[in-house]
Amino acid sequence: SLLYSIAKGDVFGKDQPIILVLLDIPPMLPVLDGVVMELQDCALPLLREVIPTDKVEVGFKDLDAAILVGSMPRKEGMERKDLLKANVAIFKTQGAALDKYAKKTVKVTPPPCTSESLTAFSSDSSPAFFIWLFSLLFSDVNDSAAVSVPHPQVAMRCGVSSDKVKNVIIWGNHSSTQYPDVHHAKVNVHGSETAAYDAVKDEAWLRGDFISTVQLRGAAVIKARKLSSAMSAAKAICDHMRDIWFGTKEGEFISMGVYAGGNSYGIPEDLIYSFPVQIKNKTWKVFDGLPINDFSRAKMDATAAELVEERDTAMDFLSQ
């Protein structure tokens, strides 16, 4: 789901040649060979080379962009905390490999857990050259904008296409505490830009079912297909990395899980937390100055508290 979009130019542009370096564990190398054959058979003109490997020194050497999707997948009935112990070791290794082998300008989309992102971030890696995206948060923003989901969200609720909705925010963790916030969102209805609350005209839905649907979307997908999100997750990663590469549109922001140091929203600093950000010249900046009401404050603090707990758990695993 991910490789085809990257290789045909959806992420880095239609004129940018691509070398794909595919890192996996040794037992998966025969499967990886099959993936390589399929990519070759697609005859994609931008794809110059595909390098399968099980060696981190090959997998991370001189990378311009790294997409870390090699975590233990979430299974039905699992909480995000259940994944931490298994995945901390993976991302400690990958954080160290990025620091040792990748270009210092590398752009990284980490795993779908902010505490795992912090693990990689904390593994002797210099924060100066990392843009820490919480890539799968964008799938939740996509969910709230009714992209690639079957259930009505903001866009379908308003009877418009998804590209008519902007500035929906996901605050906090990628878990059932994440807070999808439309207080600052805009919807273009019949050529006129309107506040999302005015366009939807249903405060109870926006503060109730809308939030819970987005929060529990991953679990709903797992329950339905017995596997975690794949196509929508890949689309989210591609959209996210493209925004890093080419920047956000004027007057718009997107949500990214970034290092919280120096934030203006009262979030504990030693976290990876999703904020509204703007991007220019491949550099992100938290969008400051948004007014936060009491409803949002409570939701933002609740997801921050969960992240503090997860961070402490992850760091405890790291020290063992």
Automatic annotation (TrEMBL):
Catalyzes the reduction of aromatic alpha-keto acids in the presence of NADH. Plays essential roles in the malate-aspartate shuttle and the tricarboxylic acid cycle, important in mitochondrial NADH supply for oxidative phosphorylation. Catalyzes the reduction of 2-oxoglutarate to 2-hydroxyglutarate, leading to elevated reactive oxygen species (ROS). One of its GO terms (biological process) is malate metabolic process. SUPFAM superfamilies: LDH C-terminal domain-like (SSF56327), NAD(P)-binding Rossmann-fold domains (SSF51735). GO terms for molecular function: L-malate dehydrogenase (NAD+) activity. It catalyses: (S)-2-hydroxyglutarate + NAD(+) = 2-oxoglutarate + NADH + H(+). This is Malate dehydrogenase, cytoplasmic. Its EC number is 1.1.1.37. Residues 2-106 form the Lactate/malate dehydrogenase N-terminal domain. InterPro entries: L-lactate/malate_DH (IPR001557), Lactate/malate_DH_C (IPR022383), Lactate/malate_DH_N (IPR001236), Lactate_DH/Glyco_Ohase_4_C (IPR015955), Malate_DH_type2 (IPR010945), NAD(P)-bd_dom_sf (IPR036291). The active site is at 174 (proton acceptor). NAD(+) binds at residues 24, 87. Belongs to the LDH/MDH superfamily. MDH type 2 family. The keyword Kinase does not apply. Signal peptide: none annotated. Keywords: NAD, Oxidoreductase. The lineage of its organism: Eukaryota, Metazoa, Chordata, Craniata, Vertebrata. Residues 153-317 form the Lactate/malate dehydrogenase C-terminal domain. Pfam families: Ldh_1_C, Ldh_1_N. NCBIfam families: MalateDH-SF1 (TIGR01759), PRK05442.1 (NF003916).
